[in-house]
Amino acid sequence: MKKKKIVALTGAGISAESGLATFRGSDGLWEGHRIEDVATPEGWAANPELVLEFYNQRRAAARAAQPNAGHLALAALEREFEVVVVTQNVDDLHERAGSSHIIHLHGKLLEARSSRFEHLVYPMDTDRIELGERCAKGHQLRPNIVWFGEAVPLMEQAMEETATADIFLVVGTSLQVYPAAGLVGYAPASCPVYIIDPSRPPGFSAAQPAFHHRASQHRRTPAGRRAAGPAVARTLQFAPPRR
Questions:
Q1: Which of 14, 23, 30, 88 has fewest C-beta within 10 Å?
Q2: Percent of the chain with pLDDT over 70
């Protein structure tokens, strides 16, 4: 018998349990920095040294962190289901927990890439990228991260996986960063959607995300809207379906 397919969209909340800072604090800052200064092409152009150091610190923190029960539970689901993890996180905790099919929408912290040629990507065995380190074609290396305002190249793949899901999980994400938040709208009509986020109160407001269909239009952008969902469930073993 063919296994049912679960697509799990995960966000910063799942890695927070491993001690990694969530993307945006209550003060609107990320580890003391304005998002515009460290997570946009404009911030990179203005101060590449600051951006490199910011991600060097994030990289060291990610290497020191360990997968938590949430990561392990998702990996364990592969015993009974086909599982595709679509993550907004740039750490490798899903990999280390044992998940085998992972789509990193926002890039990978443990990779560097050319600041000019996106296809020139290099795995990293250290925590640091230094100013002056260059790709094979002579251009400065940068983190292989999808910054705000940049296209999300794996969005089409994530949409295709979601369109064939039997179950859709939303784990540890506010559903406020687009285009990832719009994925829930691509689940089949018959597909139950489970929201798993202890920080979210029951009965939050609903909105249907708008979506474009060209990969070049899938740009990472924050948004103030939230997708529809049920009361909070605190574990992967229990959650009321949305549909």
A1: 30
A2: 78
Least confident of 57-66, 88-97, 217-226: 217-226
Fold of 21-64+111-145: SIR2/SIRT2 'Small Domain' (3.30.1600)
| Terminal Cα-to-Cα distance of the chain (whole angstroms) | 25
Tokens 């152009």 — which residue?
45
* Pick among 3.60.150.10, 3.40.50.1220, 3.90.580.10, 3.50.30.10: CATH of 1-20+68-106+152-243: 3.40.50.1220
Question: Token pair for residue 10?
Answer: 């995960």
User: Which residues neighbour 160 within 8 Å (Cβ) at sequence distance 6 or greater?
Assistant: none
Element (H, E) at 160: helix 155-163
Which has the closest alpha carbon to 191: 166, 209, 211, 173?
Answer: 166
Q: How far is CA 198 from CA 6, 166, 175, 192, in A?
A: 20, 23, 14, 19
Q: Which residues contact 138 (CB under 8 A, 6 or more apart)?
A: none
Average pLDDT, stretch 208-221? 45
- Residue 37 structure tokens: 């200064």
Annotated catalytic residue, options 101, 106, 119, 218: 106
For strands 107-114 and 102-104, give the pairing. Answer: unpaired
106 is an active site residue:
yes
Which amino acid is present at 218? Answer: H
CA distance 143 to 176: 23
Beta bridge partners of 195: 170
Q: What is the pTM of this model?
A: 0.82
